[in-house]
Amino acid sequence: MRITVPHIWRDIPFLYLKGMVKEKKKSQALTNHLKENTAMRKKPLFLTAVLATMLLAQPTFCQVCGDANGDGNANIGDIAYILNYTALNGAPPVVPEDAELDHRDGITFSDAATLADYMFWSLAPFPYTCGVTGTYSFAPASSDTVFLPRMLGIPDGIDSVQLPVTTSFETDLRGYYLPLLRTGSGSNDAFSITGIANTNEVAYSSIGSWIADTLVLFGVDFNRGEFAGKHNLYTLTYNRVNPGTGDIVTELTDRNALWRYAIEKNGDLFRPVVVYEDIILAPETLLVSLTELSFTATAGKPSRDTFTVEFTSSSIPISFNLTLTDPWIIVEPLPPEGLVTPATVTVTADATQVGIGNYTGEISIVDLDPPAPTTTDAIDIYFTVNEPGLYPSGDFDCDGIVDISDLTILIFYLFLDGDPPTPCD
Ligand SMILES: [Ca+2]
Ligand SMILES: [Ca+2]
Ligand SMILES: [Ca+2]
Question: What is the pTM for the complete model shown?
Fold first, then answer.
């Protein structure tokens, strides 16, 4: 943006220096006067009176309203200087009276915003004057809102979250000053603000700075209406500092009676509405590496096929259980207390208890904690059991295994006039 400097601004340094010379002469005359009098009369009372007179006669370096940094000019450097003082714990104005631009008692970011108004938008008669005629109202501003993030119940395993600070301001808002506590009072000390990024949605918002236990966010609008509307100005990074379930409640605070969280309008400070936005963790997904398994075996024997299935989650560990539809599905390990991601199991099929045929079953994934979607609810199992080359003795129904069905055939034959068993081919 091009900044047009009024002609009179270029004259200010000259006028200022001219005033300084005049005051210096006056001061020298007083010094000479003091010497003469102290030489003549050395009474301490008189000296005190003269010193007091001298102090009262000291030049007041208030010639340039807006010259917060004391370099003799009022310019954009003074806006930065006042912001540096009020928001970043920098040095105070060299002559505080020269920074009282909004005429309300105390140096705040409102004085910087007022100077920006004078300089860039000529919104006040020039030359402007400094001085105090009132105080800040800190009245509620019902149409200006700061949305603060809140995230509750963050499980162990999540060590860092990034949360937005959003504002919704009206067009006449010229600046904001928002000190955030490192750990809000509604938090439980598991997480703390460790970083901040400016989203660059608004050109003149500024990244804040740590002062004691606060992170101060501030901005002064150089571009009229820049802050109007809803904007995500910042992204806060919270990192884990203690174990356990974490609750984050971002909280505004007041650094002191003057530097309170506020917005600036028309040279006065107001309290914005504060609204909490609950941020929900994206649901964790249990990832299952295989969704179906196929086995073959000879009747009466275990399958030679073995599959490895992996269960993983991206950050939060998920505990879960596996349930099996059929006893011929063998999963190891399968501890009674369940499994926790990341977990790996091997799956085999056992044909010692099933006859020749095609079977289907499944491994179901149940009891997830925390509840989470899965890439599959169950792993489908297909099992083909083939004829054996040699049938075991007693296998009267020729299904490759000896079980109760063979005993049934034998009893029917011996006692109930059933057909006699025939040899298997
Ligand atoms: Ca200056
Ligand atoms: Ca002020
Ligand atoms: Ca059999």
Answer: 0.59
